[in-house]
Amino acid sequence: MLLTALALAGCEQEAEPPVPVRPVLTTVVAPVTSETFGPFAGTVEPRYSARLGFQIAGRVVARDAEVGDLVKAGQRLAALDAKVPSFALNQAKADVADAEAQNANAAATAARQKTLFDGGSVTKAQLETTTAAADTAAARLVQARANLQRAQDQFGYTELRADTAGVVTAWTAEVSQVVSAGQAVVTVARPDVIEAVVDIPDGLIAAVSPGEAFAVALQSAPAVTARGIVREIAPQSDSATRTRRVRLTLESPPSAFRLGTTVAVALRRPIPPRIALPATAIRSQDGRDAVWLVADGRVLSRDVTVTARAAEAVTVGAGLASGDRVVTAGVHSLAEGQAVRLGRPL
Predict the structure, then answer these.
(1) Shared domain check, 294 and 262
(2) 169-175 long-range contacts, Cβ below 8 Å, gap at least 24?
(3) C-alpha to C-alpha distance for 165 and 145, rounded to whole angstroms
(4) Which pLDDT band holds residue 4 (cuts at 50, 70, 90)?
(5) Contact 256/218 with Cβ under 8 angstroms?
(6) For the chain, does the N or the C end have fewer beta carbons within 10 angstroms?
(7) Given pLDDT bands bounded at 50, 70 and 90, which one contains residue 37?
(8) CA 157 from centre of chain
(9) For residue 8, is it within any domain?
(10) How high is the pLDDT of residue 10?
(11) Distance between CA 159 and CA 62 in Å, rounded?
(12) Percent of the chain scored above 90 by pLDDT?
């Protein structure tokens, strides 16, 4: 009995302790089927905008709309001092009245001379002189009426009116300021057609083409979105920022898309399915790449095909399926079939 007890004690001393279950960090495979181009910051701007100015020079005496006001077609926006144009208009009216009187007198004289000539009382030379005088008076009347029309137009130019309905976005002149003919004093934009305007770096512009649809979201409320179609790509890049301006027409945008609002523009494109893993998950040996899969509490080796490598990540093209759990750290210290427990997933 003593010998038996000693033998059993020796066996217990020689038995190896059980291998501890090792914790591992893992990640669940999820193939990527699309990629996002962007986002890029931009603003909402009107597609149609006009900088309006007076057609004559003068001093601004009235400004009837402010920035942000909605205006109707034909509504007066500003006015110039009309004293000088009114003087010219009154003079033109007087010239017309004088020309009409001169024309009527010359015509009557020519008619009398014609009657006398038919009776043989005047010579043909006298008749031709009075006829020429009547023609000159008629021409002067036409000229006077043309001058009156021009004076009326000049007087009308003292008021600046909106060509179309829109919203006032900027003023560049104040009351009492003297402006020249054609100088822009107010900008009116049409809010019915709006665009998202964004600047994209030269190195990425090749990925953008006219007619492509982007997702446009408000930066202040990302859940509010609209569809933007690329309408125009600037042919030249900005020399300072090395970016090109891209204009996207917004299709049925929500009312929150107001002029001047900041937006984020992005494009989501489908790509062939690919799997991204941390670089630490790959075991490379003899030109072959493999990963450890966790199944039923143990690790199993799986060969994979790596299609792209970076400093911290790799892209796996084949060998894994959606839902596989892959070990992402300490892969060189594991053995086939080793028992593991899950640590904090990545």
Answers:
(1) no
(2) 169/46, 169/49, 169/67, 169/259, 170/67, 171/63, 171/66, 171/67, 173/60, 173/63, 173/78, 174/60, 174/63, 175/60, 175/61, 175/62, 175/63
(3) 34
(4) low
(5) yes
(6) N
(7) confident
(8) 34
(9) no
(10) 53
(11) 9
(12) 25
Say how far apart CA 230 and CA 196 lie, in whole Å: 9
Residue 9 lies in a domain: no
- Cβ contacts of 121 within 8 Å, gap of 6 or more: none
The confidence score (pLDDT) of residue 26 equals 83
Domain that includes residue 196, residue range: 36-47+191-271
**Which positions ≥6 away from 301 have C-beta within 8 Å?**
283, 290, 291, 292, 293, 336
Q: Report how many domains make up the chain.
A: 4
217 touches 264 (CB < 8 A): yes
pTM (global) more than 0.70: no
The angle subtended at Cα 311 by Cα 305 and Cα 316, nearest 5°, is 20
Q: Are 166 and 190 in contact (CB under 8 A)?
A: yes
CATH number, domain containing residue 324: 2.40.420.20
pLDDT at residue 346, as a whole number: 46
Band (pLDDT 50/70/90 cuts) for residue 7 is low
Q: How far is CA 272 from CA 28, 33, 275, 337, in A?
A: 19, 6, 10, 33
User: Tokens 């020519």 label which residue?
Assistant: 110
Residue the block writes with tokens 């309905």:
165
